[in-house]
Amino acid sequence: MTRYSAWSVFKNGLSGHKNWGRAWRDPEPKTEYDVVIVGAGLHGLATAYYLSKNHGVKNIAVVEKGWLGGGNAGRNTTIVRSNYMMPGNRDFYEHSLQLWENLSHDLNYNVMFSQRSHISLLHTPAARDGAARRYNTMRLTGTDAEIWDLETLKREVPHLNYNNARFPIMGAAVQRRAGSARHDAVAWGYARGADQHGVDIIQNCEVTGVNRDGGKVTSLETSRGTIKAGKVGFAVAGNTSRLWGMAGLGKLPIETHKLQAFVSEPLKPLLDQVVVFGVGGAHFYISQSDKGGMVFGGDLDWYKSYAQRGNLPIVQDVAECATSIMPCLGRVRLLRHWSGVMDMSMDGSPFICKTPVDNLYLNAGWNYGGFKASPASGWHFADLIANDRAGRKIEHFNLQRFERGINIDERGAGPDPKLHG
Amino acid sequence: MIRINCPFCGERDHSEFAYGSDASIEYPALDASVEEWHEAVFLRENIRGMQSETWHHVNGCRSWLVIERDTMTHEIKSVRPAHNGYASALTAAPKDTGSEAGEQE
């Protein structure tokens, strides 16, 4: 497999870029693997990559019902940040951000990670106090965080609506190391990296059944035949409950909801940062992609759904948020909008854990925040699968935390999945 | 847009309603075990397909409804008032005598 470099670009340029090799193989499934990961999204691919790279596991397959990176990996707003306060989340997301910072070098694939600052606008003294508490906690535990006054914010982001009498902007809570990345490149980079370490990525291979022999999973029935597995990991955000049911395992603290996102026609450089606006029921986040499109999103559609299509009331909500915070977007046309289905968990925090079945492992419940988490999620899920025990950074991401009353409810919204935005 | 046929108000856009939760959940007795409460509060079947769920007609008559809806296609099979008292009141209510034209069934 070619190592990408300035030299390889030059060399392939001499033949008109027509002779680049495949980035990953398209293998036939073998009858048996040591580890089978279900779901070739960012989390599944990252898990396979770190299993092979960090833990030396050789015989790994990632099975995917569609094409790799075609689910929520390709249906998000690509925001990367680690501005979490709760113990359990803080360490984990900071580790993820640190992995992002070196990801392009590690994968030898440009994931276009851009640390362009994540700016949460503050509109009331109470919001400023709350943000100061959260961001001070971050600073005390080794994450970067700043509170900007209004003058600094106006200098950095001049074209926000600073004349809103009802919700005047008072300043912002900022994480400078946060930013965004190119979502497809992350999927492709991990796929290529995993493939180079010998992982079989098997696309168009839908899992239709999970065969168990008592307390162990023996094999997976798929649309491309039966695959025997030593260990199995689920990483199928949105459809976790369905696979869980196939494995004969009752209920989960998860509901499936859908979230819409939007991209506008490309504009000249307008917004250098990720800006988040949330006051009085509004929830809105926006950044500008490297192609120039304004990428933005808002709340869930508010009712449970597996349909990967959105509805109009949220389109209106999000458009209202956009024009109230950046009136200059009023005449901009939408290019595309899409909807992804996600695991909304009961406390807004994820699961990377063992299950009641010995050799089955679960990676689920990412709510809105799966994209930024993918490197650390893969890293620690791989560690869990390889060593059959949860590492310290994910020790609270288990299914028992609700029974034990140690929910990780970052937003304090209570046990209602749709509220954990 | 999902259209919900409220038994009190007629067919309306779903934006008038607020989604509640899975209507199949039955809360246990107050002195039931932690396991039973844990299951009712935190665990969900998360059905892909026809499920029974509660909606609140919050920008309408404010009554709670139980709706059978397909979570994949959004097709609605049935709508009924969530509280039996309301349901019987609905059937027992005297017909509107039609003081406002156009309000008749």
Topology:
The complex is a heterodimer of chains A (421) and B (105).
Chain A (H helix, E strand, L loop, with lengths): L5 H9 L17 E7 L3 H14 L4 E4 L15 E2 L9 H12 L1 H5 L10 E5 L2 H16 L5 E4 H7 L14 E5 L3 E2 L2 H14 L3 E3 L4 E7 L2 E7 L2 E10 L5 H7 L7 E13 L7 E4 L6 E5 L4 E12 L7 H14 L8 E12 L5 E4 L5 E5 L5 H18 L34
Parallel strand pairs in A: 1-2, 1-11, 2-8, 4-13, 11-18
Antiparallel strand pairs in A: 3-7, 4-6, 5-6, 9-10, 10-11, 12-15, 12-16, 13-14, 14-15, 17-18
Chain B lengths: L2 E4 L3 E4 L4 E5 L11 H9 L7 E7 L7 E7 L5 E6 L2 H9 L13
Antiparallel strand pairs in B: 1-2, 3-4, 4-5, 5-6
Q: Could you characterize what this model shows?
A:
The complex is a heterodimer of chains A (421) and B (105). Chain A has 421 residues and is of the alpha/beta class. Helix content of chain A is 28%, strand content 26%. Chain A has helices at 6-14, 42-55, 90-101, 103-107, 125-140, 150-156, 183-196, 240-246, 312-325, 370-387; strands at residues 32-38, 60-63, 79-80, 118-122, 146-149, 171-175, 179-180, 200-202, 207-213, 216-222, 225-234, 254-266, 274-277, 284-288, 293-304, 334-345, 351-354, 360-364. In chain A, the strands form three sheets. In chain A, strands 1, 2, 8, 9, 10, 11, 17 and 18 form an eight-stranded mixed β-sheet that branches. Chain A has an eight-stranded mixed β-sheet with strand order 5-6-4-13-14-15-12-16, with helices on both faces. In chain A, strands 3-7 form a two-stranded antiparallel sheet. In chain A, a hairpin with a 2-residue loop joins β9 (207-213) and β10 (216-222). In chain A, α2 (42-55) runs parallel beside α7 (183-196), α2 crosses α10 (370-387) and α3 packs across α10 (370-387). Chain A starts with 5 loop residues before the first helix and ends in a 34-residue tail after the last helix. The mean pLDDT of chain A is 95. Chain B has 105 residues and is an alpha+beta fold. Helix content of chain B is 17%, strand content 31%. Chain B has two helices and six strands, in the order βββαβββα. In chain B, the strands form two sheets. Chain B has a four-stranded antiparallel β-sheet. In chain B, strands 1-2 form a two-stranded antiparallel ribbon. Chain B is globular and about 45 Å long. In chain B, 17% of the residues are buried. Residues 98-105 of chain B have low confidence and may be disordered. The chains are: A alpha/beta (421), B alpha+beta (105).
